[in-house]
Amino acid sequence: MSIEEAKRFIQSAYPITYPVIFERAKGIEMWDVEGRRYLDFLAGIGVMNYGHSHPKIVKAVQEQIEKLSHVSMLYYNVPAILLAKKLAEIAPGDLRKTYYANSGTEAVESAIKLAKKYSVKVKGGTGSYIIAFDCAFHGRGGLTLTLTASHKYKKLMGHFANYPGVVHLPTPYCYRFPGDVETCKQYTLEKVDEYIKYRLGPENTAAVIIEPVIGEGGIIVPPDGWLKELEKICRENDVLLIVDEVQSGFGRTGKIFGHEWENVRADIMTMAKALGAGLPLAGIMATEEVDKAWEPGDHNVTFSGNPVACAAALAGIEVLLEEKLHENALKVGNFIMGKLRDASLKPVGEVRGRGLFIGVEIVKEGKKPDPEATKRIGNEMFKRGYIMGTGGIFGNVVRIEPPLIVTMEQADKMTDDLIDVIKGLQ
Ligand code: PMP
After folding, report:
1. Ligand 1: which residue has its CA nearest to atom 14?
2. What is the pLDDT along the chain (426 residues), one digit of tens a residue?
3. Ligand 1 centroid, distance to 346 Cα (angstroms)
4. pTM of the prediction?
5. What is the tally of helices (H) and strands (E) in the chain?
6. Would the keyword Membrane turn up in this protein's UniProt record (predicted)?
């Protein structure tokens, strides 16, 4: 098949914005089948935190696939056990027990199942409700589509994307809140308290689920102290707190896990994306207390705990810790954000983020979202050889999420180009 035929084929099967066929990658560089080079400033949507084809990870995968590539989770395998042990060492708070899955969607669904079982079996409640937030993204399965807030993913799915029992409360999206940050913080927290106490009832509320940095919704960083206060509300009302670290985990925000920024003690944590260092792997971690609700056989999928994916994950975590990639994420991320803020660009409503999890909100007069200009920025950056994301609940956020190995020089050059492209819009 020629490259032209291949492009026609993919366009007819699934028309995508960029008909590019990638062939190989190394570090933050990627090459397509025509030999064109790109810089990956999206990390495969938050997956390649440790860079593409890291030699340690490649070696671990090669060695493991020669030994054992799959075994049913009715049994155990060595990398799955070693990874669970390692995760228990690095996870914050009391998260000690690991269960594997293949995707973020499955991890979130497992977390909800566990929270509901805990609510009914251990607490003696009904566990009928889950509180999520109105900019949340938690996946595209049945239950997870319900938890995901944006209509664009739910269209034409009817009840399958809107199961009863999920309540969406306002996100602390303070840039768009009609008041100052403190009022935004108090208002959004009071809503959670009000719903648990007076509308749903603590005994009926199984859990609150939150992304420490709300990713797909627009890289929204809750105000300082918000997450800690949320934890307090959950504790006071005896409701579980689930932190969805699918995108914010493994160094992305400048800490190993995003909820470490506020010293939060979560009851359940979800993981995926960067966990498998490029191979499909996901999981949840729970406290020993919450774990009481699981019975053998409650949770399993065919590929959970795949030995090759677990070997990659283990090597990836070693790379993260040895190379202190979270520290680099913080340093380079602050540099990019500072430079973009200093440029005082008119279409930029807000530059926000944590570490290398950065959003640039593109607006018209009066903070009106400008998704068209955002798309143009993404396309223009692509022409200049950058892979970058655009998204957000209104489609007006440029996403910057490179592998955490990105250098200051690479970041500086990309930021210059981005500033130039945004200036070209005016
Ligand atoms: N939770 C969060 C916070 C996510 O960002 C995503 C994916 N963008 C998911 C869950 C779903 O993960 P997956 O695509 O692996 O199913």
Report:
1. 104
2. 888 887 777 666 665 667 789 999 999 999 999 999 999 999 999 999 999 999 999 999 999 999 999 998 889 999 999 999 999 999 999 999 999 999 999 999 999 999 999 999 999 999 999 999 999 999 999 999 999 999 999 998 888 899 999 999 999 999 999 999 999 999 999 999 999 999 999 999 999 999 999 999 999 999 999 999 999 999 999 999 999 999 999 999 999 999 999 999 999 999 999 999 999 999 999 999 999 999 877 888 899 999 999 999 999 999 999 999 999 999 999 999 999 999 999 999 999 999 999 999 999 999 999 999 999 999 999 999 999 999 999 999 999 999 999 999 999 999 999 999 999 996
3. 32
4. 0.97
5. 13, 15
6. no
Query: Quick check: 272 and 281 in contact, CB under 8 A?
Result: yes
Q: Which two tokens mark 67? A: 């030994």
What is the rounded distance in angstroms from the CA atom of residue 256 to the CA atom of residue 93?
A: 13
Residues having CB within 6 Å of any atom of ligand 1: 103-105, 108, 137-139, 211, 215-216, 244, 246-247, 272
Domain ranges in the chain are 3-53+324-425, 55-322
Q: Which of 350, 356, 268, 347 is nearest to 320 (CA)?
A: 356
Q: Which atom of ligand 1 is nearest to the CA of 247?
A: 5
Its CATH architecture, for the domain 55-322, is 3-Layer(aba) Sandwich (3.40)
Residues 6 or more apart whose CB falls under 8 angstroms from that of 90 comprise: 256, 317, 321
ipTM confidence score: 0.99
Q: Which fold has domain 3-53+324-425?
A: Aspartate Aminotransferase, domain 1 (3.90.1150)
